[in-house]
């Protein structure tokens, strides 16, 4: 008899505990729990439909219908509608077209499917290509975003499962007869044509329900792989469906665990595990037929050994403390937490939650208060007040002080998926700014903010003097401002480096710690204005723009010169976050458009512009003129496409046009209002927010 010592027993229990912790740790986070439940529900829906897809050989039809959703999703996104509804309408239209064309005796059914497949996919691509402000993440559409599953999505999936169960139960006899002998189905009065329509409807429900979780390209990982694997273990349709649901559920849980610890895309990992189970089933089935059940069991045990070896044996596995953007003390949200931070010239600050429309005021003490409070907190009187934002924090400078406000909303982007977080709105602290170099006198103006940029490690605030304050982004999130590092030059975080342009015009890529790095070939004389795009960092120069981009592990620079010597150069860029199309004022009678992708400058003439922005390439230019009218301008022809008055009189101060993937926001300083404008709907004013202070300054956060 085997006897274990106390130490051996402790070691075994310790290993078992660490192994269980390795498996359970991912599901301690709310968004992974929702992803698991979403994947389990999708597995059940796909098992019901996928079994018939495998048995009847309908894979090509399913593939075509999955890709046929793109036009509906694109149109729904542009109109601000529900993406699932758009996908359902498009997928239903695809199914109807296939049924209609399949009746023709001139060609086979797969020809009709192929034609509609290409046609619908082409239509979707055309819609997206002609609408550069397209607000849907195409990566999420193609590959899914299971980690972004919301609670409301779980209710949609429950409804889809209920509908699928009803169709599967009541249509079972007709489906079986249709699969094996359509003529007999007709003889028995089972209505094979109606059964075919119901079966396509069942497939439509499964595809529409699944695309948000694993995307259109990976939907067959759960739609086909589990039922195909289940066919090796049973010949009865109900049993195949049950086994397929179990395999799909296992694939979901295993895929999430692997994705968590290895850092892979969750949707793709789930699909890969599902496909892997098919090959394992195929191998075990072949072994069973050749060597019997004992051989299959031995092979299964042998295959499980690597999984046992994955469990930590001596040292506990390192658990990622902040996986997938998780931040202690923050609440994960199901959607982007857009906020507007507005301030008046005296330093009064208001933060409005664009989802709830709740307004929070920040008096001088820094304690949030509900509005109206009437609180004013002058920061000083010896210089203009300026405001800049980095996506989460707003930096308000005046009178030798820079106040840092945590807007409480931000997005963590992991490339294939995003996470949205919210936290309490608060004032994080303040730092002193220096007098502007070269100025003398008793009333010496101090440095003010000219722009702010952030990555996971650093927050950089560019000052009007040409210097930059660099903060620890993690410490700022914890409410600790600390002493910023000062860099003599315009510094922007990019690709885990700092891209710096100094007063001499030299462009250099430095380490995050400011250490000397690679000096670029291009120079940027008299640098003013900067932006971060998907194609690199842009600096405005006296002779054009310099773009610094990361390519093949290194950095390259490129100069985009003005088409002719420009007297009205761009000094401050505006754009939708991430967009490669930038705009800027061009004197008193025009605006600039800088297309980074095409490497071109375009000057559009318009009288008396005071603010400009755009949603992206191909989208209308949004230009506010001094008379308080917002114009939509065609970027190619320069003609006006729409207009709307957003001020009761001539514009005061320095107005702002902020653009995000859905809406534009324009501050009406005179009327103490901010207008929300649907720029894809003829500049329709969707909402108007009123404030107790004049919103002279404004930035949008949460993006």
Backbone shape: elongated
Whole-number radius of gyration?
30 Å
How much β-strand is present in the residues? Answer: 25-35%
Proportion in helices: 25-40%
- Terminal residue distance: 64 Å
In quaternary terms, these chains amount to single chain
Q: Which spans of ≥5 residues are poorly predicted at pLDDT below 50?
A: 132-137, 302-324, 364-383
Q: Would you tell me the overall average pLDDT?
A: 78
What is the helix tally?
A: 16
Structural class: alpha+beta
Q: Order the strands across the largest sheet as they lie in space.
A: 5-4-3-2-35
Sheet with most strands: 5 strands, antiparallel
How many strand elements? Answer: 35
Question: What report would you give on this structure?
Answer:
By secondary structure, the protein is of the alpha+beta class. The chain is 37% helix and 26% strand. Mean pLDDT is 78; it is low at 132-137, 302-324 and 364-383. β6 and β7 form a beta hairpin. The chain has 16 helices and 35 strands.
Task: Set out the fold topology.
Elements: H1 6-24, H2 30-56, H3 59-67, H4 70-78, H5 83-101, H6 109-129, H7 138-143, H8 151-170, H9 172-180, H10 182-187, H11 192-223, H12 225-231, H13 237-262, H14 266-291, H15 293-310, E1 331-333, E2 339-343, E3 349-353, E4 359-362, E5 369-370, E6 386-389, E7 393-398, E8 401-406, E9 409-413, E10 418-422, E11 426-432, E12 449-454, E13 458-463, E14 468-472, H16 473-477, E15 485-487, E16 490-494, E17 497-501, E18 506-510, E19 518-523, E20 530-533, E21 536-541, E22 544-551, E23 554-561, E24 581-585, E25 590-595, E26 600-605, E27 609-614, E28 621-625, E29 629-633, E30 640-645, E31 657-659, E32 664-668, E33 673-678, E34 684-690, E35 697-701
Antiparallel strand pairs: 1-10, 2-3, 2-35, 3-4, 4-5, 6-7, 7-8, 8-11, 9-10, 12-13, 13-14, 14-15, 16-17, 17-18, 18-19, 20-21, 21-22, 22-23, 24-25, 25-26, 27-28, 28-29, 29-30, 31-32, 32-33, 33-34
Helix pairs in contact: 2-8, 2-11, 2-12, 2-13, 3-6, 3-11, 4-5, 4-6, 5-6, 5-11, 8-11, 9-11, 11-14, 12-13, 12-14, 13-14, 14-15
